[in-house]
Design brief:
- This protein has 383 residues and is of the alpha/beta class.
- It folds into three domains: 66 residues; 60 residues, no CATH class; 189 residues, Nucleotidyltransferase, domain 5 (2-Layer Sandwich).
- Helix content is 44%, strand content 13%.
- A five-stranded mixed beta sheet has the order 3-2-1-4-5.
- Strand 4, helix 11 and strand 5 form a beta-alpha-beta unit.
């Protein structure tokens, strides 16, 4: 005869039933949670406790505890262990704080050669200095113990996350100026699409484009055998070239030069190309960074010969991401520069110019769309 229980039935909502069903079939959850999900599902169907114990493969006491917790505190409590601490921890809070302090100190500051800790190195240092520091409980701490202490404080001292320090005191002012230019271009296109009294272009350089040659021919894909192009690991460096480009923010047209170097004289040649491309009566506004070739004596001398023709708008220092020309170079890197192999620098130059010509055949207008910061500042000014 099936065992009868005096316990109350477990009534599950649709969401709880669906959650337990998914958890009972999970391959990533812990075995303990999967077993308890099966127990609660079976009990909600009024199956006898003994049959649940046998079908799940656990002791009856486990079934009793799981069901009682779910009936008393809910399904979530039935899936988890109740917090219990049979005795005070051997490693106290002060000892953990000492470990955290050591983890936040570079090894080189403690006399080691390493720049960053490894978990093994940190655990060894803790064991060797725990007694002297007054924490003998840590003298036998294993690496996993140190791991738990660091995890509690969300620390990973063996990792590096890079950042860029803001070194331009006028960063906000210059950024606002650039964003105002982008917004003005946007308004100009919406209100007067045919008129361009001021033409805005973004100018930048992409140096160090490598001319890399294969040492063996590429192998084409073969249906049902080799789905990808085969390429030998070895290659030969043939030198580098620099791309100097101007991106028209109105129609997406790209004016570019490919040179061996990017000095003032090459930049002046790009300015002359820009000057030739646009109508004589238009003012050309250029968004660019503070590279030495942009503001050199030679460049200023050329600009003096064309008074009123060019207007500079500088991006802040370490703010090149504000220049939409960076998006243009990103598109090049994702398209015709991707996995590029050539036999000479001359071929690299020809291929780059061909790629730019293809981009101009189907130009894409790059627009800046995030103006929330300007709108917030404008609203504060109005108030």
């Amino acid at each position: 005869m099936a065992e009868k229980t005096s316990r109350a039935p477990l009534v599950l909502s649709e969401d709880e039933s669906r959650y337990l069903q998914d958890l009972s079939q999970s391959r990533s959850a812990s075995v303990r949670e999967v077993e308890r999900a099966k127990i609660l599902l079976a009990y909600s169907r009024a199956e006898p406790l003994l049959r649940i114990s046998k079908s799940v493969g656990v002791a009856r006491e486990t079934v009793y505890k799981c069901v009682d917790k779910a009936l008393a505190m809910g399904v979530a409590a039935g899936l988890k262990d109740l917090f219990h601490r049979p005795k005070e921890p051997v490693i106290g809070e002060e000892a953990k704080a000492w470990v955290v302090h050591i983890a936040c100190t570079k090894p080189k500051d403690l006399g080691y050669a390493a720049e960053l800790w490894t978990r093994s190195h940190l655990a060894r240092h803790v064991r060797e200095h725990a007694v002297v520091a007054g924490f003998p409980a840590l003298s036998r701490a294993a690496k996993v113990t140190i791991q738990r202490i660091l995890t509690e404080r969300s620390l990973r001292p063996e990792k590096i996350r890079y950042y860029l320090e803001r070194r331009d005191p006028e960063f906000e002012t210059k950024m606002r100026e650039v964003l105002l230019v982008y917004r003005e271009v946007r308004f100009q296109e919406l209100q007067n699409p045919g008129e361009k009294p001021v033409i805005t272009v973004c100018v930048d350089e992409k140096p160090g484009v490598q001319a890399i040659a294969n040492t063996a021919p590429d192998l084409p894909p073969v249906p049902d055998e080799h789905p990808t192009v085969g390429r030998d690991y070895e290659y030969k460096r043939m030198g580098t070239l620099s791309i100097l480009a101007a991106l028209d923010l109105h129609d997406g047209h790209v004016i570019a030069r490919v040179e061996d170097r990017h000095r003032s004289q090459e930049f002046i040649l790009l300015l002359k190309d820009i000057d030739t491309h646009y109508p004589e009566q238009a003012t050309i506004r250029i968004v660019l960074d503070n590279h030495s070739s942009h503001i050199s004596k030679e460049t200023r001398a050329y600009l003096a010969t064309r008074p009123g023709r060019f207007v500079y708008v500088h991006t802040p220092k370490h703010g090149s991401w504000l220049n939409l020309a960076e998006n243009l170079f990103g598109k090049m890197a994702r398209t015709f520069l991707r996995h590029l192999r050539v036999s000479s620098k001359a071929e690299l130059k020809r291929r780059i110019l061909l790629g730019i010509q293809e981009m101009n055949e189907e130009p894409a207008v790059f627009r800046w769309t995030k103006f929330q910061k300007l709108e917030r500042e404008d609203s504060v000014t109005i108030l």
